[in-house]
TrEMBL record:
InterPro entries with a match to the protein in the record: GlpE_sulfurtransferase, Rhodanese-like_dom, Rhodanese-like_dom_sf
Occurrences of domain Rhodanese (ranges): 12-101
Stated name of the protein: Rhodanese-related sulfurtransferase
A Gene Ontology molecular function term of the record: transferase activity
PANTHER family, A to Z: FAD-DEPENDENT OXIDOREDUCTASE, PYRIDINE NUCLEOTIDE-DISULPHIDE OXIDOREDUCTASE
Top-rank lineage group of the source organism: Bacteria
TM region positions: none
Amino acid sequence: MSEIPQIASTDVPDHAVILDVREQDEWDAGHAPGAVHIPLGELPTRLHELPDTDSGTLAVTCRGGGRSSRAVAWLSQQGFDVANLDGGMKGWHAAGKPVVSASGQPQVI
């Protein structure tokens, strides 16, 4: 298996477009402000919803990095310019990056 491209939370602007592949309840609890939500299991049928990567690499996240690593491997095979957000949303939150939620009060990621 080839190396999965990684990107650090500190290298991603706070309001960058990020692909979040977590489940709905995880998304509702808290996500990056500029994130697009497509659960991992729905990714193959929702490729048309992916943000345009012509302007640069698209960061992909989940809770800790496992699911997003699988998404990055698959999306790379499909020709997308993607990288795994190192540490997932736990790393994003730990880096002091902004988190928004459905309730307006982000829960523990």
